[in-house]
Write a structure and sequence with these properties.
115 residues; 2 domains; 5 helices; two-stranded parallel ribbon; mainly alpha; single chain
Length: 115
């Protein structure tokens, strides 16, 4: 599983900087249960309905090379969240905090949004 995780991380990144890999304990039964519940919520539309209860500002930061398509995040969330901002980082994959072209911009966005 650790080797698979490294391959997936490499595929999800555009131009990662050298970094120490995180090794996370995988509890497959919990993972399967959570994602099965999430899949049901997504397919039924209940996940977006739950999103309507969010009262705080939401900022989504995503890389243009992220394997998760940005329109699949931006479009539905902008329809249901009252205070939503979407920021697309150029030349960035799924892990902006380790991406050569996006790391500084990512942290600057975090600082400006949180402070």
């Amino acid at each position: 599983m650790a080797r698979l995780g490294k391959l997936i991380s490499k595929a999800d990144s555009n131009d990662p900087l050298p970094h120490k890999s995180e090794i996370l304990e995988c509890q497959y039964d919990i993972y399967q249960n959570v994602w099965e519940q999430a899949r049901k919520l997504r397919s039924s539309g209940k996940l977006l309905e739950l999103g309507k209860k969010i009262q705080c500002p939401v900022v989504a930061i995503q890389g243009d090379y992220d394997p998760h398509l940005s329109e699949g995040i931006k479009r539905p969330l902008s329809r249901i969240l009252k205070d939503f901002k979407f920021i697309l980082l150029e030349n960035c994959g799924h892990h902006p905090w380790i991406e050569r072209s996006a790391k500084v911009r990512f942290y600057n966005i975090l600082k400006s949004e949180v402070l």
